[in-house]
Design brief:
The complex is a heterotrimer of chains A (about 550), B (about 210) and C (about 130).
Chain A (H helix, E strand, L loop, with lengths): L4 H20 L30 H9 L5 H5 L3 H4 L2 E2 L5 E2 L16 H4 L24 H4 L20 E2 L7 E2 L4 H5 L7 H8 L37 H4 L37 H4 L9 H4 L7 H5 L10 E6 L14 E3 L5 E4 L3 E6 L5 E5 L3 E3 L13 E2 L1 E3 L9 E15 L4 E2 L12 H4 L2 H12 L8 E10 L13 H4 L23 H32 L1
Parallel strand pairs in A: 5-13, 11-15
Antiparallel strand pairs in A: 1-2, 3-4, 5-8, 6-7, 7-8, 9-13, 10-12, 13-14, 13-15
Chain B lengths: L2 E3 L3 H25 L7 H29 L12 H9 L20 H26 L1 H5 L7 H26 L8 H8 L1 E3 L14
Antiparallel strand pairs in B: 1-2
Helix pairs in contact in B: 1-2, 1-6, 4-6
Chain C lengths: L31 H18 L12 H10 L2 H4 L3 H5 L1 H7 L4 H5 L5 H14 L12
Helix pairs in contact in C: 1-7, 2-7
Classes of the chains: A alpha+beta (about 550), B mainly alpha (about 210), C mainly alpha (about 130).
Amino acid sequence: MQMPMHAAFRTIAVMAAMLMAAAAHGAPDAASAQLLKSTSDHSKFKVLQQDFQSGPEVTKACLSCHTEAARQLQLTQHWKWEFLNPDGRRLGKKNVINNFCTSVASNYAYCTTCHIGYGWKDDQFDFTAQENVDCLICHDTTGNYRKPSGFAGNVVTRDTEFPPGSGKVVKALKLRPIAQEVAKTSRDNCGACHFFGGGGDGVKHGDLDSSLASPDKALDVHMDATGNNFACATCHMTEGHQVPGSRYAPTAVDKGGAHLRGKERTGNPTTCQSCHGQAPHKANLAKLNDHTDKVACQTCHIPAYARGGIATKMAWDWSTAGRMGPDGKPLVKTDAKGRVIYTAAKGHFVLAENVVPEYAWFNGKVTYTLLGDRIEKSDQPTRINHFEGSASDGKSTIWPVKVFRGKQAYDPVNQTLAVLHMAGNDDTAFWTNFNWEKAVAAGMASVGAPFSGQVDFVSTESMWPITHMVAPAQSALKCRDCHASDGRLEKVSGIYIPGRGSDHATWLDGIGWALAALALFGALAHGSGRIFVSRRRT
Amino acid sequence: MARVYIFKRFERFWHWAQAALVVALLLTGFEVHGSYRLLGWERAASLHTSAAWLLIGLWLFAIFWHFTTGEWKQYIPTTEKVFAMLKYYLVGIFSDAPHPFRVTRLSKHNPLQRLAYLLVKVCINPLIWVSGLLYLYYNELGATVFAGPGLGAIALVHTAAAFLMLAFLIAHAYLATTGHTPLAHVKAMITGWEDLDDEPAHEPTRSHT
Amino acid sequence: MTKTVSPACAVSLCLLGVALHAIGAHAADGDWKRGRVYYQKVCTDCHGAKAGGAIAPNSRSIKDWTAYLSADRHARGKDALKKYVSREYRASIKGVNKAAEKYADVPDEQLFNDIRSFMLKGAKDGDSPASCT
């Protein structure tokens, strides 16, 4: 933005005046002066006092002191976007196909906006180059660092027209002030990507959206900006850049005690139990502690997700994408609240706030439908991923989940999910020409998968654990929410829930009430007989 | 009219306290079971537990009392006059026939009562008591002893016993009206004194105007 | 009952895909995160409930906000923002407002500077336009 000279001058003058006023009112007294928690002020480092021209330049400067950082990061899922499932299958962003924007493959330059690296524009990316690690996306404190979409995770340090020929200009970013103010990660850092998963604010998870940047207590007791103010890393306690608590490697049941200082920690530090232990409820609520063998803490303590005023996507129908409006332009539809529920690029969405989760047994194992797995179009949706577990395996608890329902492209002949080439400045990208066959052909070719040339749509379902947005105790579920017929756990099988009608032995209830009725009827009949004869006698 | 003092103070207290607790337990219990909504599940469950503990306490006292006073002998079953009693309830009561049984201090329950109360004491109560405690301590036992039957089975037994208790309660409450006046038995249970018909008493009695 | 700020000021930082100028001057900046909390939990709390709708930082430009803050004629001149940032005000609402309680002892000028940082940063042409949707 260019300000006219005089305006800029006035701005500076006003600012200066305010600063002087502040100074005149009194420098902060000794007691209130903040002690810097870090031992270093990065703005004083010579190596950071340069006008960086690219992300990797900053990284090199960082690495000149933090010699091991890049190597540590290159071991992580954040870097590799790959995860080896215990069942031996290769998962991770790089490999899975989901039912949101479907796949990273063939859309790298857009998706890798959220990669913690610079320049992952195709499958030739050099995962060993240390300067490709992006330090700032996680350690920026100014809130000004950003990686625009379409630049393969690079920052833009010179005003750049994008897409080329569009007349739209991506403004240059000044890296120097950002590099000079780095510090520990905050919710804003993690949120820059994790709040926006699925392509927009709150879209994917439902329990993660930008309302958690500075939430109040009602939204999240731990992250409450006016209270506990947890950073993500308070629970996702990171050492050597290895962030624990990935949903790819979940701990569904934690039987360990609270982690204490001085004791060697082995368990996952992100579980509720790792702080609260195994018997978190006080003596007067001790019965609640008896629930923890079957019920995950989250089930009662996260009564609903998407509670921060930002809607999450509940369903996405790709099959209707590509419609043009009367003006011949891609159609966009909004609902009564002005939220987008249809775009030509993406099809129909269902949005929701304050969503009551679905509940399922979960033992920490998740199975996936990957590219190449045979799928069939049937009444049952294809499970993009599925939480394993049951009442009887002894390893499961009941978890709240977001079930995301979709309808997405697949190859009906080869019976496989499809890799879609969505974004890009080329003729095959779906978002450019709205042609499914071309988009799938390009997508499948990019990963070397066979494609029959035909595209159809299949219903899919994916499961997302609900674990953030923990509500204050008084908003936790009440007994009757589950101990009732048609309660929250109505569909959870394999367990006897007192008060749930479907668990009753109907024969026993039938016989029991009949017996009581018989006793009552007998008494009434006998009694009336006595009354009758005594009347007649008198 | 002659009177006999058959229900001692503790016995009367025990009876009415037990009656109140059983009614409370039935009301809250079937709410916990899910048969209706009355107090709200949470309150029903917590009242049910408290009432159960009170009743268990009361039973412990009562058992102690029965054995120290020898009153337990009142429940020794007898076949004598059982059929006479049945005939009385089915026929005699309608024709104002004399009651086949005379209450005495040593034998205050008629043979049918003896049988019924014995059944409650040795079948229904233990069933409720044991299944209820298992229900309450399911978690503690779950891991070690009770991995097998599961809460559903325990609940089933507990519910079945509750239905038996309910049927007993209804019949008992009705039969309490079968004294020489409809409230005679109830009055006896309140004051301890049972009115006797004009026939002479075998036991020392106190006359009363 | 704690109330949710719900639609009010769930400040979307619109992080990715938007590239904007850094205005530099970092050293002189206040703590924008503290400013954000105070703005959302104290200023917006009042605007949302009593004063007809939230006031989004991105509804005005840096220039406009700078002028507004230096003139400090809040609510069309009825009072001053300084009043709502002051320790006295914070003490008066401390019982019902967690942010006021948490920042009860922050010097007035410092807190004002924090709020200013947040508002300028969140301005229409600021580094992270902040909406209140």
